[in-house]
From TrEMBL:
Protein name: QacE family quaternary ammonium compound efflux SMR transporter
Organism: Stenotrophomonas tumulicola
Transmembrane segments: 30-51, 57-79, 86-105
Protein family per UniProt: Belongs to the drug/metabolite transporter (DMT) superfamily. Small multidrug resistance (SMR) (TC 2.A.7.1) family.
Species classification: Bacteria, Pseudomonadati, Pseudomonadota, Gammaproteobacteria, Lysobacterales
PANTHER family (alphabetical): MULTIDRUG TRANSPORTER EMRE (PTHR30561:SF1), SMR FAMILY PROTON-DEPENDENT DRUG EFFLUX TRANSPORTER SUGE (PTHR30561)
Biological process, per Gene Ontology: glycine betaine transport; xenobiotic detoxification by transmembrane export across the plasma membrane
Length: 110
């Protein structure tokens, strides 16, 4: 299977895990806390499979960059957290970095 499918699934599970971590209220609510831990466990397993085919730095840059953007959007829309101009600029730079890696880096090909 294409390693980018595993990477996309790992990103989604990381975002779910982080959202559940926020909902766990400092690990005091057992259902979201358990869901968070399970999401992270499967996420890291899928990321490890990804790293068999995609260089570690590239896989991690995409995983963390896309995860940051998605969890920032969830924070904004679900948890009603505000993003100021420097945060938005930083997120835009992260998006630009992920695009540069995917569009121009020969290291990201497998």
């Amino acid at each position: 299977m294409n390693p980018y499918v595993y990477l996309a699934a790992a990103i989604m599970l990381e975002v779910i895990g982080t959202s559940l971590l926020k909902a766990s209220d400092g690990m005091t609510r057992w259902l979201p806390a358990t869901g968070s831990l399970l999401s992270y466990a499967v996420c890291f397993y899928l990321l490890s499979i990804t790293m068999k085919s995609i260089p570690t730095g590239i896989a991690y840059a995409i995983w963390s960059g896309v995860g940051i953007v998605l969890i920032s959007l969830i924070g904004l829309f679900v948890f009603k957290q505000r993003l100021d101009a420097p945060a938005l600029i930083g997120i835009a730079l992260i998006c630009a970095g992920v695009l540069v890696i995917n569009l121009f880096s020969k290291a990201s090909t497998h």
